[in-house]
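Hey everyone, long-time lurker, first post.

I ran two proteins through the pipeline my lab uses and got sequence/structure pairs for each. Pasting them in order. The first:
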Amino acid sequence: MTQPLQTTSPAQKESSEANATLHDWTSRVTRLANALVRAITQHWLLIFNTAMGLYAALPALPPVLMKTGHPRAAGLLYTLFAPLCHQLPERSFFLFGPRLAYTLGELKRRIGPEVPLRYIGSAALGYKLAICERDTAMFVAIWLAGLAFGLVRRRLRPLSLKVFALTCVPLAVDGLGQLVGLWESTWWSRVLTGSLFGVACIWLAYPLVEDAMQDVRRVVNQEPTGGATP
């Protein structure tokens, strides 16, 4: 007996085409997402170092803008960094002046007994960076240590938490002693403690980030856990 021919209704055909289109778009989005994740995991260090380099360099732009006659743009950047740093002039580096740094006493002798908390400088003294000496040293150290990490990223193990805590002690002692009035830290003590802390942060964090990025890359590439690193 002859079987009746199976026909596809217009609704079924339309549904099938819609499903195929959805599957095609889903595949494209998945491939694009995998490619983006793969690119980030392969180039994360370049992304981080570029971002930190810009952040370390940007606070030096306001003095340049002041020197070249753009006070409004400089003021905008000083304001931008104000929530991130105290910006005290006696704890900040100055550019385009006779001194790289001034103590509070030196500033009082030069501009008077009342030194504004956010004093930015003058043509005679130079203009301060938008962040303090310790923060400047910290972020420059983070950037330089990130560049150095690129040379040893496959071999360097993370700094232990115990050693990391020890590297924080000089910064804490120097900062707290100054805060409670036991002493006035100097620009070189701020640079040393800030730099030590910045390097320690990279030594602790970047090897862990590198391991995490390799694990993500293995998943994206559907490699076994013990597979070779691409």
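...and the second, right after it:
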Amino acid sequence: MARMDKINQLMKREISNIIQQEFQDPRLMFVTIISVDVSPDLRNAIINYSVLGDDKQIQAVSKTLSSLSGYIRKLIGQRIRLRYTPKISFVYDKSIEYSIRIEKTLNELKDQRMSQSKKKSS
């Protein structure tokens, strides 16, 4: 595994732990860190996350994570020894929401075909 991959995985694990264990905020209960992409110069990190909930909950989580990013950066600096502690940017990842929507659509199509085949056989 390359050095940057190790750093990304370590950051992902630590940020997940921080969000789940350090903060008792109910808005953060259903946050999942999907991936971390630290820049090669270690100055910036993009944290992709997903949230179970509606648009209102997603916006609340986004604001909360943005306001906590400085404190999370401080905790990362204490837990992980790097030349620089990266500036953290949280980005909502819509891919899980998108895949759920596709699965729901496929299931609806399957149900329609099943009901059509039952009508034809009757």
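Reply from user beta_strand_b:
Welcome! Quick read of the second one: The CA atoms of residues 1 and 81 lie 19 Å apart. The longest strand covers residues 31-38.
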